[in-house]
Write a structure and sequence with these properties.
The chain is mainly α. About 75% of the residues lie in helices and about 5% in strands. The chain has a two-stranded antiparallel ribbon. Strands 3-4 form a two-stranded antiparallel ribbon.
Length: about 550
């Protein structure tokens, strides 16, 4: 099974388990329910079982590949230990010492089964290589514990910890792909699939939280992937994980620094986290999450651009960043003028920008014409898909016919579930068409050239509608996050098979945005979209039978 199919499998399982857990938890009054308090921003109990869905989706997909090496087996064993403690903590609460013990046991299990470890810090001074020798288990455990708690500490707003982890894991998967590190690629993509399936229900306003189960599992996953990516003779610097851990690690350093300034215990909960600071300084929930994601994306871009830099250069740059951060915190605490200036900048500058730009207003007739042009372009792209291959496998054709029949039955039996079926059918047919076009045996044929032209026209039509429409584009935090990942991947250097992957990614992104726009108008265009998908499914079935 290819890594991309593992991602899809993890996504499907995560969506299914998340939906089931939301419905099951809604009947519970205690246990896994996260209740509001003075440190939390939600005002009603919300189930914190999403981490179970992420874990189940990721590990179930990964379990098909456990024979590929000790790293995957060790990762699964350690993650299972960590999730057991996390579930107990989410259900009834654990003393932080017991929670810490569970984290140590998970790390020890990973090290014993896989042998993974940080054995060198590279050249921290020109010509001087720092090898850890017999201290590598302690240093590895310390790094993993830091990653686990950094993500756990960042889990304070809807979609925040999950979004940060999604960005980091996507970057890790890209870098693993470049160096053909199959184990890291499998772990990261399975976790990405599990996260995407969960985040649809976790973006603001969230209907489910990941809890300590999810945040600790994600931190553990990040730690394992970063060690495996940059150790054992890797061409990447062993200092690089400090950059790729991004804002969670900087937030952890910032919080510990402020607690030490106040002479408080570093384990005592407070409201000194970055997301708390942004909320207190005038940004709303969505703006705070967006700003942190942008900061995390900037750290990833910096780390990615410096991935081949010398170890001591990376260490010096990171120490400079940390010094600048802590210095800024100290100055803000000492100067009211600086504090007020930053508050004004956040409220009037970034806050106004993220609140949403006003669309360009145009005559109603022109806006309607742009919508009709978009609909025609979308329909043309969908309808050309059955004719892309010279022949279709009959098994695939029967599968599409069965899906069309299931949709018809669902429309009659459970109309309220039919909208979900339409979304899934539209996404699948678009992705299927993109993959068919990318793997076309006759890229210069008339049909293939027509499809390429229609994709360009669809992009123009989509952009034109956004400019001329009287309505604002409705994107949630998950959509924005996926767009950021796609744009990051599109602007990375590309050769060979990765260049083809970028083309597939760009078309998939365009298709997803178009479907999102249609789903926002589903109440009006429900039947046309359903009929379009049905006609395409039946056309694929007919082509396969010829």
């Amino acid at each position: 099974m290819t890594p991309l199919l593992l991602l899809v499998l993890a996504l499907i399982l995560s969506v299914t388990v998340s939906t089931v857990l939301v419905r099951a938890s809604s009947h519970a009054k205690n246990g896994f329910m996260d209740k509001p308090d003075e440190r939390k921003v939600h005002d009603h109990p919300i189930p914190r079982t999403g981490g179970i869905a992420v874990f189940v989706g990721a590990l179930a997909a990964m379990s098909t590949q456990l024979d590929r090496g000790e790293l995957l087996l060790g990762f699964a064993a350690g993650a299972s230990v960590l999730v057991i403690f996390g579930m107990i903590d989410d259900y009834r609460g654990l003393d932080f010492r017991i929670k810490f013990l569970g984290q140590v046991l998970a790390c020890a299990t990973l090290l014993l089964v896989s042998g993974l470890g940080i054995r060198t810090l590279g050249q921290l001074w020109p010509g001087v290589t720092v090898d850890l020798g017999v201290l590598w288990p302690l240093f590895t455990t310390f790094f993993l514990l830091t990653a686990i708690n950094a993500v756990n500490f960042s889990d304070g707003l809807d979609g925040l910890a999950g979004g940060i982890s999604l960005l980091i894991l996507s970057c890790v998967a890209l870098m693993a792909l470049f160096v053909d590190n199959t184990s890291v690629l499998i772990i990261s993509l399975c976790a990405v699939g599990g996260l995407i399936g969960f985040l649809r229900l976790n973006v603001h306003p969230a209907v489910i939280f990941m809890g300590d189960t999810g945040s600790q599992f994600l931190g553990y996953t990040l730690g394992v992937c970063l060690i495996a990516l940059t150790q054992q003779g890797s061409i990447y610097s062993p200092i690089l994980p400090l950059f790729l851990l991004g804002t969670p690690l900087l937030d952890l350093i910032m919080v510990i620094f402020q607690r030490l300034l106040k002479k408080q215990s570093i384990f005592r909960p407070d409201t000194n986290h970055l997301h708390h600071k942004l909320l207190l300084n005038g940004l709303d929930h969505a703006q705070s999450v967006t700003l942190i994601h942008l900061g995390n994306l900037a750290m990833l871009a910096l780390g990615f651009s410096l991935r081949f830099a010398r170890d001591y250069v990376l260490a010096g740059i990171y120490l400079g960043l940390v010094a600048a951060l802590l210095g800024t915190i100290y100055v803000i605490k000492k100067s009211n003028r600086v504090r007020i200036g930053i508050q004004n900048m956040l409220r009037r500058g970034f806050g106004a920008l993220v609140a949403g730009a006003t669309p360009i207003y145009s005559p109603p007739a022109l806006a309607h014409a742009s919508w009709l042009f978009f609909m025609a372009a979308f329909a043309a792209v969908i309808l050309v898909i059955p004719f892309l291959p010279s022949e279709l496998d009959k098994t695939q054709g029967v599968g599409f016919f069965a899906a069309a029949a299931a949709g018809a039955i669902l429309y009659r039996a459970q109309p309220r579930w039919f909208d979900h079926f339409i979304r899934l059918a539209a996404y699948f047919i678009m992705l299927y068409g993109v993959i068919l076009h990318a793997n076309s045996a006759f890229p210069d044929s008339l049909v293939s050239q027509t499809a390429r032209f229609l994709f360009i026209i669809l992009g123009v039509a989509y952009s034109g509608y956004l400019v001329l429409s009287r309505e604002q584009l409705l994107l949630d935090g998950m959509d924005i996050l996926l767009i950021a990942i796609a744009v990051f991947a599109l602007f990375t250097p590309s050769t060979g098979s990765y260049a083809m992957a970028q083309l597939v990614l760009s078309k998939t992104l365009l298709g997803g945005l178009c479907i999102n726009l249609l789903m926002n108008k589903l109440s009006t265009y429900r039947k046309p979209l359903a009929l379009l998908c049905l006609a395409t499914y039946l056309a694929i079935f007919a082509r396969s039978m010829i």
